[in-house]
Amino acid sequence: MSPRVLVTNDDGIDAAGIRALAGALRAAGFDTVVAAPNIDASGTSAALNATEEDGRVVIEERDLGYAIAGSPAYITLLGLHGAFGPAPDLVVSGINRGANAGRAVLHSGTVGAALTASAAGCRAMAVSLDILSPAAATTASGGAVMTLSKEDEERRNWGTAAATAVDLVDALLAAPEAVVLNVNVPDLPADRLRGLRRAGLAAFGQVQMTVVETGQGFVRTALEESGERLVPGTDLAALAEGYATVTALRALSEVDLPGI
Questions:
Q1: If I label 223, which of 44, 103, 199, 212 is the partner at 20 to 30 A Cα–Cα?
Q2: How far is it, in rounded angstroms, from Cα 176 to Cα 182?
Q3: Mean pLDDT, residues 140-154 taken together
Q4: pTM of the predicted structure, to 2 decimals
Q5: Structural domains counted in the chain
Q6: pLDDT of residue 260
Q7: What's the confidence (pLDDT) of residue 256?
């Protein structure tokens, strides 16, 4: 029997990436259900929030699946508790609009959904497409920020990332429990992808927040490229070389603290 897969994301159910991912999983024969935020929920990490009306979480059925007024992690928990039919065997989150690499994965709603699934005992994968390139970046307040028109988003190589995710399902099924595969794929046609590499997390994210202006009662921020040196063996370095990357993460772990 084919594994049942819950597909979610943080860019919202109307994003091109989630359509490509769900389509590829269904074409590969997986029993796939889609449940995702009804609006963009980027940067929500593993937050658990939702909009309720009379004590009920608002859910709308769409052609692709379920659109929910809630965060990706919350939606994932709903799915694991049978809100969208039988509980899934796997959760696959993405395809995110932009890489989720380095230690900045802490803040990602895409990764947060996958980590939430794994903490609940379900194997999970987060998938992202690296669209931060000269063609996809504009400068604002001295830094590069991702801005995509609808037409530009549709032209991106979502199929490359979707195929990479499908190819990694067997590895995910064979992975230890409570492990998340964090997958990042360059925005390249499949025939230009140099391959797949296991990689560690870079010590920084692809972009960083800066404070542009402060004043009486307000603060204004912007995102800009980090400008840090790429370290060989890390996810950001491999992405820059044209490789897709996979990094195994754990949602929660404990360490011994001497003296306590």
A1: 199
A2: 14
A3: 57
A4: 0.88
A5: 1
A6: 86
A7: 85
